[in-house]
Write a structure and sequence with these properties.
Largest interface: A-B, 86 and 90 residues
Helix content of chain A: 55-70%
Mean pLDDT of chain B: 90
Number of strands of chain B: 7
Largest sheet of chain B: 2 strands, antiparallel
Strand order of the largest sheet of chain B: 1-2
Strand content of chain B: 5-15%
Shape of chain B: globular
Number of strands of chain A: 1
Number of helices of chain B: 25
Strand content of chain A: under 5%
Low-confidence stretches of chain B: none
Distance between the termini of chain B: 44 Å
Order of helices and strands of chain A: HHEHHHHHHHHH
Number of helices of chain A: 11
Oligomer: heterodimer
Radius of gyration of chain A: 19 Å
Structural class of chain A: mainly alpha
Number of domains of chain A: 1
Amino acid sequence: MSLAVRLALTLSQAALLAAVAPLVNGFIKVLKARFQRRVGPPLTQGYRDLAKLLVKENLHAAPTSALFRLAPAVSLTSAVLASATFPCVAFGGWAASGDVLTALYVLALGRFFTALAGLDAASAFGGLGSSRDVSIAALAEPVAVVAVLVLAAGVGGPPDGAVLAGVHGTVFTSWRLLAAIAFFLVVLAECARVPVDNPATHLELTMVHEAMLLEYSGREFAASTLAAQVKQTVLLALLAAVFLPDGLGASGDPGALALSAAAFAAKLFGLAALVAVVESSVAKLRLFRVPDFLGAAAGLAILAYVAREAL
Amino acid sequence: MRGTLAHFALLLLLGYAALAFAAARAAPAVVVRLGAVVQVAALGLASVDAVRVLMTGAPQRVALPFTGPFAPVALRLDPLAAVFVCALALVGLAVALYAPAYLDRAGHRMSGPALQALLSLLEASILAVLLAEDLVGFFVAWEIMTGLATAVVLADGHRAEVKRAAILYLVVTHIGTFAALAGLLLLLGDAPSYSFDALRAAAASRTPLVYGIGICLALAGFGAKAGVVPLHIWLPEAHPVAPSHVSSLLSGVIIKVGIYAMVRTALDLAGPPPAWVGHLLLVVGLVSALLGVLYALAQHDLKRLLAFHSVENIGIILLGVGLGISAQHAGLPTVAALALAAGLFHVVNHAVFKGLLFLCAGSVHLGAHTHDLEEMGGLLRHMPSTGRAFLIGALAISALPPLNGFASEWLVLQGFVGATQGSPGLLRATAPLFAGGLALTGALAAACFVKAFAVAFLALPRSENALHAVEVGPMQRLAQNALALSCVGLGLAAPWVVPVLSRVGASLGAGRFTPIPQTGVLGGLGVGSVQPAVLAVAGLALGTALWVWLGRGMKARATGTWACGQGSVDGRAAYTASAFSNPIRRIFSNLYQFERATVPVAGAAPYFVMRSKTRGAISPLFEEHLYQPALRLLRWTSDRFAPWASPSPNRGLVVFAVVAALLLTWAAS
């Protein structure tokens, strides 16, 4: 594939992932509503909310600085950039620079600025959100890294597109499943999902991620919200494409490409459904039980490595 | 004799010091400024040489025209020393720019000319340590460096805590020097001279046991200087009390000289290291990194926080070096070369961003008259330039792309991923633990710098001083911006810098490390790859477009912060540094052993407490469980010997004669 084609593939993947992010989030919301025997909002509600926010004015609390205006742009940029660092559908021809570990570091940049913005308005709620968010992230990050390491170890290559090439064609192994489960638990924590955080809460004291965005409104709030949704989609896509690459076409011809795109979409929404199931069946943990939850995830990741070494 | 530029740099610094002491009274302001010019010139010259040596890989050697007490004195600049000279030059240049304006306003007890002269001598002594070619020259320069470092720390020597810190520094580093000297002499054995070449030849023929004892003593001794856990206790005491531009040099460069000595010993002088040396460095590195960052999180004194982060980053450097040795034995030459290069790259990177952060801490102290984060707040409004520079330093130390801290830390992490492909053994079995530990360190560092930046520079002022803070002058801003720019530049240039640094490994000893070819990406060659420049350009384009669009066409409305309908908030509502780190302190409570006491402030009505004070502190684990027992043992032993040390000179002479006779008999046998 020529550089232009690869570049086009990379950019269209980033654009597509960003575009479907509100849909994925809406899908989880609808499923959750069905579990609660409600009809729920339409699937497109996420887009309508964003459209409404885009025509509203930005409100800036008096204590805030220039960083407060910068943070939404940085967090959305980091989420979109992260979505371009690994291939979701085709492999062997990737223009973007980076690998899965880079994706995690790029996402951390967005979190850094969001956490700073949470503290900028001198509100105790924002500080509470930032403090809890970085604490949870500090425990989630190592688990994600170990899970990626297991994957790379299993196929004997760097944790990037080559991993896909390596995993493709291998039989489904126990270590891959264990690593995928560990990473799924990390996704729940990173995306502020039950049992770590409750995205539907309206009580400031129980918020984590939402508390950081409490002072935002208008376009900036739209950007921050979209950033969180894109990040969620990117992490689910990472899980679908890199941890569970089954169903990917091996060649770059259009037929195989279409097939693997369909398989990827099915896995993405399947994982989103799993998030909804977990969210509907598990209670939120107390903040200081979260280390136990992420400790279990870390245990699974280590177990995956042991399984990979033993098998 | 032909001199080299590095050699002239030494002479310049020494000459200036002599002049400064002579002319300090006559024209102090001129002397201080002249010092900055001389330092810039000298370090500039030295860095030209260092870069040349790094690019060509050929060492430079100058034999001095006089003979030292044991051997002819020569200065030798090889690629390993050149890396550290580069770190010294980068930080030293910024410090030179920063110092004059800082000294005018900081009000230290020691005079400006004296501090400048000591600083020049200190930089000369660092150069001398790095350029030494024999054990005598090395240890003489090493001791002079330690003494000068203590002298500059004592710039406010009338204060009790400064005195205590300086004594602690002297004691710990001297025990370290003693251990290192003993270790190296053990390796040297009965070699004919004290030159490094003789040591290299002699060390190769030592038995594994002698080698083991010697290398452990040397690494522990030099490690005390570098501040590795558990020998770090002096570092968070001594670095914060020094003048801020000196703290930059102490934390940025001098502890790296300890790393230099460790690498020089383990990878060069003592011959090819066995695998266990690599494992040892890995374990020590991880413990230092994790404990350093966890202790940093609990601090609310800005300079102490930065000092603990130095312990963390020394740990990361050792992880890179240790992985280099271990991976070599696991049959992974590329991973080994990448890891060692990443460790050396982190030496330079940490020097740059830690130097920057300490300069910013000095500016904050000048502007807001405090080091206590809880008394800051909202400083970005009054000190925008310092705030921006601090933010870049914070992003770099948090290993966020595309800055320099990201490049080196990410590369070490990729090394651990690559280590899973090695031959079965300890490294392969423990690789996920080290990778996870390093990731935890990075994430905790990010948490700590969210805290440091936000509590100091964002939200509202928490004290009168913070409310009336003023920005520092143009030269100080220039120094900060230069280092901030270096953070960005080194991050973007990482794909090309790392292969150059990988030649250092190839130049050591018998060239056991293979140099990495220029591939145009960071990493690659079997581990993951990234091109930071592509990330930066794409991110900058998208981010700027978004940022412009988010604020375009609509005027933002100014409001108050949401305070649950209770009017407006003031600085007291914002999160403090202690509150921010509370969840992490609770999660890791086993480590901190946090002690808290709430005492009511006596008022008119004793049973109705109107005000109370809460004081909390983390218990110093190492002091309590390691140093106190060791001290008690020492006291106990010396008490047992007390009867021998009677004032009677006759008895003393008898003891002396017996010991001397025993030693001579042993030496003769």
